[in-house]
Amino acid sequence: MDLSAEAIRVLGSLMEKSRTTPESYPLTLNSLVLACNQKTSRDPVTDLDEDEVMAALDELREQGLAVRVDMAGSRTAKFRENAGPKWELSHAEYALLAVLFLRGPQTPGQLRQRTERLHAFGELHQVVDCLRGMREREEEPHVLVQEAGRPAGSKEMRYAHTFSPIPEFVEEETNDNASQGPAVPGTRDRLNQVEERLEAMEARLAKLEELLNDLNS
Questions:
Q1: Alpha carbon distances (Å) from 198 to 60, 172, 193, 204
Q2: Shortest CA distance to 30 belongs to which of 76, 80, 87?
Q3: pLDDT-derived band of residue 1, with 50, 70 and 90 as boundaries?
Q4: How far is CA 205 from CA 32, 54, 103, 105, 211, in A?
Q5: How far apart are CA 56 and CA 62, in angstroms?
Q6: How far from 12 is each of 34, 71, 153, 217, CA to CA, in Å?
Q7: 166 Cβ partners below 8 Å, 6+ apart?
Q8: What span, in angstroms and rounded, lies between the C-alpha atoms of 143 and 117?
């Protein structure tokens, strides 16, 4: 199954928000646009408009990977992902796939860090074991991830999802790049807290806009 880059971003955003902001889920179209284009936890950062997101939703709905939800008391259509049930994903598989959809090829160490809010992996080997299982599934699709080579100067293999071509690797210039040495103690926790606050603010903004749309309808 090949999905467009826009469909991958929309599906990843729906999967992420189902776990991180369940009080605002399912998402309105406007909330989903904000989720796709947010500046944190995205690589690359995008600037999708409503028409592009709607087209991506149509693509996902044709594949049975997204569903429109008409909520009682709301005049605004909402959307949720259906990849979890359709592909029979475990919590760990769900978290890894969502982050791979949103941030491209990554090493197990990066995935362990970046999935903390979706699923807590106790040890690095648990990530590796889960990735191995995602390459050899009994359920369809039988292969969810693939090896994507090693970044320059790194001993860790990168992994990518299998629903679009692997993008050409660009060396990251972030604090979690292994070539930059150990991070300052507490930096990761502070970054996670900032991301959580930003996502909470985006969710509140989307909720206010949704209420305004209902009032104006």
A1: 27, 22, 9, 10
A2: 76
A3: confident
A4: 12, 20, 24, 30, 10
A5: 10
A6: 13, 22, 29, 29
A7: 105, 146, 148, 160
A8: 24
- Structure-token pair, residue 149: 């080579």
| Exposure on the CB side of residue 213, measured as CA atoms within 13 A | 16
The predicted model gives 67-89 an average pLDDT of 92
Q: Which CATH number fits domain 5-85+193-216: 2.40.50.870, 3.40.50.2300, 3.30.420.10, 1.10.10.10?
A: 1.10.10.10
Question: How confident is the model over 88-114, as pLDDT tens digits?
Answer: 999 999 999 999 999 999 999 999 999
Token pair 């074991």 is found at: 129
Identify whether the C-beta of residue 12 lies closer than 8 Å to the C-beta of residue 36: no
DSSP 27-53: EEHHHHHHHHH-SSS-SS-----HHHH
